[in-house]
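hey can u run this one w/ zinc ion bound, need the structure tokens asap thx
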Amino acid sequence: MAVQSVWRFVDWVLQLDTSGSVPFFEMNCMRCDETSKAAESPDGPQNWALKHAGRTGHDLFQAVNTCYFRATRANIKAGDDLPSYHTQAGSSSARVASHP
Ligand SMILES: [Zn+2]
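ok here u go:
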């Protein structure tokens, strides 16, 4: 019997990556094309939305939180207890089939 494929399972970790940009927030008016300025805190965009609503009567907004995640192979030693899927704030990990 010939071996047709070999599967290797590798742990990968997904972590928030702020090396290129910190997370930022924006608000988009859904009644017109106006958008708040991007900000590192949601406070400024939310204040913009309230002022925009007061000025125009537009009442529906889309909140956008943009951040980047980087996937890397986990440095897990044999015998470490890693759930097959684990999520917590800012990172998650999974054991997935990977090319050798
Ligand atoms: Zn608007």
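The longest helix spans residues 43-56. anyway lmk if its weird
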